[in-house]
Specification:
By secondary structure, this protein is an alpha/beta fold. It has one domain: Metal-dependent hydrolases (TIM Barrel), CATH 3.20.20.140. 48% of the residues lie in helices and 15% in strands. The chain has 15 helices and 9 strands. The radius of gyration is 19 Å and the shape is globular. Residues 15-18, 61, 97-98, 157, 159, 188-189, 191, 216, 219, 264, 294-295 line the site of guanosine-5'-monophosphate (5GP).
Length: 354
């Protein structure tokens, strides 16, 4: 097996509905087509298309949400997404998703999240540790079985279309679900929509209550918002494609870790080519950064793919990539005990990969 697949990896920026297998999405769309809910022939080419602008990506998400937002499907895609990450040796996954309401089918934000947790419990191809004190059958990370193991923690996303009250509801739900693996809050959704001040009260409340926060930041040129977000001192930011020099100075002096999604940034046209991607500068400046997929389904990528892409584009070897992967442990939102276990897993893998 190639080293970038067999090396252990930590994934910190993966959206549930962006990480669905193409085959599952097409199967679900076909079934809805047969029921007459959508016109499959219209939808098929949209799903199969590869390069999309950021705006087209959000149009696709609206379509995906029509296809996936019912409890059974949410459970299924959660299970599959975790299995897919585990199959490429992701040993710690922070999976983020936006709790959704759909009154017509009796779905509340809470029942949506319960369906997600049900999906975590349903995984049987690998051992999943998803809650601080949850050890399901055979789920002990050190139990000597040969089954693969993965830690999964959840981030609840606030969509930028939401109101302050919606955002607050999501934060309260996250707090209630801390014993089921929820460790933080993400702000995402179309960056051309919504205003930072709308979400700030809920994010402040989340912080006061001890949740960690990651923000999609600088996906479009909006210097004032980027500055305000950096002043908030989030535990991590995602993307950072349109940071200006003063933003970088600020982010670097505050050592805010950046979740880097190479393929996503290139496919959406946020960055014109890899040779000008900020990964290079951040890596050489030793700024905290984490390679991530963003939406492995939408962008037809994988975390292993992102590692080999970074290695080949920026001239890094296996040793450097292992070190980069291991450093990601420092920026996870789970506790120190898990960090310790992950470091051990990396260290024992390092010996076999050399
Ligand atoms: P979900 O939260 O429904 O599981 O995952 C899909 C959602 O994640 C999208 O509707 C969008 O709100 C958010 N998302 C996925 N990819 C991106 C991205 O690249 N940028 C931003 N800002 N949001 C994203």
């Amino acid at each position: 097996m190639e080293w970038w697949i067999s090396m252990p990896k930590v994934e910190l920026h993966a959206h549930l509905n962006g990480s669905i297998r193409d085959s599952t999405l097409l199967e679900l769309a076909k079934a809805l087509g047969e029921k007459g809910v959508i016109l499959f022939s219209d939808v098929e080419h949209v799903i199969r298309k590869n390069d999309r602008s950021l705006n087209e990506v959000f149009k696709l998400f609206d379509l995906i949400h029509i296809i996936t937002t019912d409890h059974t499907t949410v459970t299924r895609i959660t299970k599959e997404v975790v299995e897919d990450f585990a199959s490429e040796n992701v040993i710690y996954l922070e999976l983020r998703t936006t709790p959704k309401r759909n009154e017509s089918i009796g779905m509340s934000k809470r029942s949506y999240m319960e369906a997600v947790v049900k999906g975590l419990r349903a995984v049987d191809a690998v051992d999943v540790n998803f809650a601080p004190h949850y050890l399901g059958e055979g789920n002990d990370i050190c139990n000597g079985t040969t089954k693969k193991k993965i830690f999964v923690r959840l981030l609840l996303s606030i969509d930028r279309r939401e109101t302050t009250a919606d955002a607050m509801e999501t934060v309260k739900l996250a707090l209630e679900m801390r014993d089921q693996g929820v460790v933080g809050i993400d702000l995402s959704g179309n960056p051309t929509v919504g205003d930072w001040m709308t979400f700030l009260p809920a994010l402040k409340f989340a912080r006061e209550q001890g949740l960690s926060i990651t923000l999609h930041c600088g996906e479009v040129p909006n210097p004032k918002e980027i500055q305000a977000m950096l002043e908030f001192l989030p535990e991590r930011v995602g993307h950072a494609c349109f940071f200006k020099e003063d933003h970088w100075e600020n982010a670097k002096s505050s050592k805010i870790p950046v979740e880097i999604c190479l393929t996503s940034n290139i496919r959406t046209g946020s960055i014109s080519s890899l040779d000008v991607h900020h990964f290079g500068d951040l890596y050489h400046a030793k700024h905290p950064l984490i390679l991530c997929t963003d939406d492995s389904g939408i962008f037809s990528t994988s975390l292993s793919g992102e590692y080999i892409l970074a290695a080949s584009s920026f001239g890094l070897g296996k040793k450097e990539m292992l070190e980069l992967g291991r450093n990601a442990i420092e920026f996870i939102f789970a506790d120190d005990e898990i960090k310790r276990e992950l470091r051990e897993a990396f260290d024992s893998a390092a010996g076999t990969l050399e």
